[in-house]
Known about the structure:
Elements lengths: L1 E4 L3 E2 L6 H16 L3 E3 L3 H10 L7 H9 L4 E14 L3 E13 L5 E10 L10 H31 L3
Parallel strand pairs: 1-3, 1-4, 2-4
Antiparallel strand pairs: 4-5, 5-6
Helix pairs in contact: 1-4
Amino acid sequence: MSVLILPFKNLTSTPEAGKTISALFISSITLHHVMYLSSASNGTMKDIQKMTESGTLPNSILQPLAKEHIDAVLFGNVTEYEYRSGLSTEPVVGFTWKMISTKTGRTVWTGAVSQIDTCFWFCHDTLSEFGKELVDAAVDKRLSDDYQYQSRQDYFNRSD
């Protein structure tokens, strides 16, 4: 599967939070070899980024991407990316994402994460480290779900 990953929209007061989460998705997907990353022409990218604010992409955008051999587009929003103070200073990361098939226009993967690092005394996770843990967990879950689905399909399609 060839995927175009767009910069996530930053809805936080932390500069570059959207680009950071996008980069973490790129890193995790590349590390797991689960999808091939793609790019699109600059003109198309500007149109796509405007359209993703609505949470979907029209066929007029998806069809040209499909012709460029891009199977899906992944985009999202970063809703939390900061340190919160309480008994200790803890990283808080939250984001949503959606992957849309360029061939069908259907959502093929969606999710949301919002979590405070629950580590107490001796933990020193940075925002990026904690964000990476959350993104990796989301990608791992997707891989696990895909594997379970494929295993069920293999079971029901066998010819015993």
